[in-house]
Structures are given as C-alpha cells and as structure tokens.
C-alpha cells in the first residue's frame, strides 16, 4: 500500500517539519486529484468539495473527517449514501482513521455504492442540458 498525503497548501516548509514519514508514504503540497483517483482504493478527506467530487466521479469510497463550513453536512451525506464512513470530527486520531480505512476496504458495499454514483455522474448530460433547460424556461416566460 502506498499512502499519498497532501497538505492543501503551497507552503513546502510544512513538509520539512514532519518528523518521520513511513517508507510507503508520499507527502506533498498538492496532487491533481483527477490524475490520482484512478489509482486510489480509499480516499481519506476533510470533505472538501473538489476532492469529494473527484472521488465520486471515479467511484472511490471515502473516509471523511470534516467539521468546518459545509463539511458536516457533506460528511453526513457521504455516510448516508453509503459511499464512505463519517468520522464525525475534524480532528480524528490516527487510530480512528485506520479503523475507518479498514472498514471501507473490508466492506465491498462502499465501493459498489461509490461506483454506482460514478456511473450516474458519467451518464449525467452536463452543462449542455442545463443550458438547454434554461433556454426552455426563458422561452416559456418570454412575453409574446
């Protein structure tokens, strides 16, 4: 197993302050999630919108620990939809993260639910359909 950890900031001094990084761990300030997700078995996240959307689009189950902004609600939705485990804190212990990861990896239902969401995202018509819908609404409301 390889662990990829991102700090979410461009301040590389934070990386240098880490005491010891296990041999199977890569720590960096940024990773393009679209490039990483096809290789990920489980995504541990704070529930940020971009990372969650990439994980969902790639069918990757999650362990989420977020308690700021809209992350509490997003974390609850991740658990409710069956695509991941909500640790219900923004500051999980390493043991809690480990339990969450083991749970997601051991139960195929998380991966199946994640893949089902990915299929729905792939099948969605996207912005072209949205624009077409807006044009129809605007045409219906246009005075004669």
UniProtKB/TrEMBL annotation:
InterPro entries: EryCIII-like_C (IPR010610), UDP-glycosyltransferase (IPR050271). GO terms for molecular function: glycosyltransferase activity. Keywords: Glycosyltransferase, Transferase. Coiled coil: none annotated. Pfam families: EryCIII-like_C. It comes from the Bacteria. Residues 11-135 form the Erythromycin biosynthesis protein CIII-like C-terminal domain. The keyword Glycosyltransferase applies. This is Erythromycin biosynthesis protein CIII-like C-terminal domain-containing protein. It comes from Microlunatus phosphovorus (strain ATCC 700054 / DSM 10555 / JCM 9379 / NBRC 101784 / NCIMB 13414 / VKM Ac-1990 / NM-1).
């Amino acid at each position: 197993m390889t662990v990829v950890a991102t700090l979410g900031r461009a301040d590389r001094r934070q990386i240098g302050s880490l005491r010891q990084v296990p041999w199977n761990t890569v720590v960096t300030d940024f990773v393009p999630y679209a490039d990483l997700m096809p290789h990920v078995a489980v995504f541990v996240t704070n529930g940020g919108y971009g990372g969650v959307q990439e994980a969902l689009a790639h069918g990757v189950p999650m362990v989420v620990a977020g308690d700021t902004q809209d992350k509490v609600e997003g974390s609850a939705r991740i658990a409710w939809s069956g695509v991941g485990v909500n640790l219900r804190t923004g500051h999980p212990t390493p043991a809690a993260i480990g339990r969450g990861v083991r749970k997601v990896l051991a139960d195929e239902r998380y991966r199946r639910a994640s893949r089902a969401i990915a299929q729905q995202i792939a099948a969605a018509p996207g912005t072209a359909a949205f624009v077409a819908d807006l044009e129809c609404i605007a045409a219906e409301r246009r005075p004669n």
